[in-house]
Design goal:
heterodimer; A: 128 residues; mainly alpha; 3 helices; 67% helix; B: 252 residues; globular
C-alpha cells in the first residue's frame, strides 16, 4: 500500500467511526432522556424540565458527570457522545502523526507533533 | 440547513449559528459560542469523512496551516484582553470586503483551464505557503476571539493566492476547522458553558446536513459555490463592520 493511501485510509476511518459513534450516542441519549429521564434530579435534570425558551437557558455546571445512577444514564450517554465528537479531531491528528511517523516523513511528523502538542496543551488548560 | 451550506463552503457555520442562537432564540453569548464550537466540529467531522475518502482534502497542507491556526487561536485568547474587539471587527470587515471583491473578480477562464478538474493533492502545486501560514495565524486569532471556524479567511486565501482549487480549498478548510474548534471547545465544555439539549439537537441537525452537503459538492458548479461564498463574505463583512461601529440591527 502506498504511503499516501495509508494516510488517507486511516484518517478517513477515524473520522467515519468517530462521527458515527458520536451521532449514535447523542441520538440515543436524547431519545432516552426525552422518553425515560426523570425530571428535577440533582444537577443534571432531564430534558423534560428544560425548555427551549431563553429564560430557562442556563449553565449546567461541569458536564463531565458520568454517574452510575440509572436516572443519569441518558445524560451520561449524551455527554459521552459529545466527548467522542470533541475528541475525533484530536484522534484524527494523532492518526496523521502516526502515519507520517511510520512512513518516515520527518517534516510532517514534526508538523503534526506540533499540532498534537498544542491540542494536548489546550486540553490540559481546560482541565485545570 | 446550516450544516449543508457550511460543508459545501468550507466554513464551520459559527458565523451563522452564534447570531441565530443569540438573536433568534435568546441563548446567552457564552452558551451560544460553546454550542457553536460543537457544531463546527460536527460540520468538520461529518463532511470530512467524504472529503478525505475522495482525496479532496489536502491533509499535508491542512496540517501545516493548522500549526499556525492553533497557535493563532491561543494568541487570540490571550489578545482578547488587550485588543479592542471593535477595532478588530472593523479590520476584519475590511479584509472580508477585499476577499469578496477578489473572489468576484477572479476570471472564469482560470477555472476552466484545468485547475478545478485537478482537486487531488498530487495534481496541483501549492504556492505561497508563508502567506497561507500568515492568513491561518490571523484566522486562528479571529477564531479564538470570536468563536468562529475561520474558514471565511482560509478558503479565499488558498483559492486566490496558494494555487489550491476552490473545492480542494473548501475540503482542506473543512478538515482544519474541526481541529481549531476542538482546541477551544475543551475550554467551554469543561467550564460548563455547553447546554446539553441545545447542543445535542443542533449537533444532530448539523451532522446530517454536513454529510448530505459533502456528498453533493461534486455536483455543484464552482461558479455557484463562489457566488454563494461571496454573499456569505459580504454578510459577515457588514455584520462585523456594524458591530465595530457599535450599531446592531436584527440580522447584523
Amino acid at each position: 500500500m502506498r504511503k499516501e493511501d495509508f494516510l488517507y485510509r486511516w484518517v478517513s476511518l477515524i473520522l467515519k467511526w468517530g462521527s458515527y459513534c458520536s451521532l449514535a450516542l447523542i441520538i440515543l441519549g436524547l431519545v432516552l432522556s426525552l422518553f425515560f429521564g426523570k425530571g428535577g434530579v440533582g444537577p443534571f435534570p432531564s430534558f423534560r424540565n428544560q425548555h427551549f425558551v431563553p429564560s430557562s437557558v442556563s449553565r449546567q455546571g461541569a458536564p463531565l458527570h458520568l454517574s452510575f445512577d440509572k436516572d443519569y444514564y441518558p445524560i451520561a450517554i449524551l455527554n459521552l457522545g459529545l466527548l467522542v465528537l470533541m475528541f475525533t479531531p484530536f484522534f484524527r491528528v494523532l492518526t496523521a502523526w502516526l502515519s507520517f511517523l511510520f512512513s518516515k516523513d520527518i517534516k510532517y511528523t514534526l508538523i503534526s507533533s506540533g499540532v498534537f502538542l498544542i491540542l494536548v496543551f489546550s486540553l490540559i488548560l481546560a482541565l485545570m | 440547513v446550516i450544516g449543508f451550506f457550511a460543508s459545501i463552503l468550507g466554513i464551520g457555520g459559527g458565523i451563522l449559528i452564534v447570531p441565530m442562537l443569540n438573536l433568534l432564540f435568546g441563548v446567552p453569548m457564552h452558551l451560544a459560542i460553546g454550542t457553536s464550537l460543537l457544531c463546527v466540529i460536527a460540520t468538520s467531522s461529518g463532511a470530512a469523512v467524504s472529503y478525505v475518502q475522495n482525496r479532496l482534502t489536502n491533509i499535508r497542507l491542512g496540517m501545516s496551516l493548522e500549526l499556525a491556526t492553533t497557535l493563532g487561536a491561543i494568541a487570540g485568547g490571550l489578545l482578547a484582553g488587550i485588543l479592542s474587539r471593535q477595532t478588530l471587527s472593523i479590520f476584519f470587515s475590511l479584509l472580508l470586503a477585499y476577499a469578496s471583491f477578489s473572489m468576484l473578480s477572479k476570471k472564469p477562464e482560470l477555472e476552466t483551464s484545468g485547475s478545478i478538474l485537478k482537486n487531488n493533492p498530487e495534481e496541483y502545486k501549492v504556492s505561497n505557503l508563508p502567506l497561507g501560514m500568515g492568513a491561518s495565524l490571523f484566522a486562528g486569532i479571529i477564531s479564538g476571539l470570536l468563536g468562529v471556524g475561520g474558514g471565511v479567511i482560509k478558503v479565499p486565501v488558498m483559492d486566490l493566492y496558494m494555487g489550491v482549487p476552490l473545492k480542494a480549498a473548501i475540503a482542506t478548510s473543512n478538515f482544519m476547522i474541526g481541529v481549531t474548534a476542538s482546541a477551544s471547545c475543551f475550554l467551554y465544555y469543561f467550564r460548563g458553558d455547553v447546554n446539553l439539549p441545545i447542543s445535542a439537537s443542533s449537533v444532530i441537525g448539523i451532522f446530517i446536513g454536513a454529510m448530505i452537503g459533502s456528498k453533493y459538492i461534486h455536483k455543484i458548479e464552482v461558479k455557484y459555490l463562489r457566488k454563494t461564498f461571496v454573499i456569505i463574505l459580504v454578510y459577515v463583512s457588514l455584520k462585523m463592520f456594524f458591530n465595530g461601529i457599535g450599531v446592531h440591527f436584527f440580522i447584523f
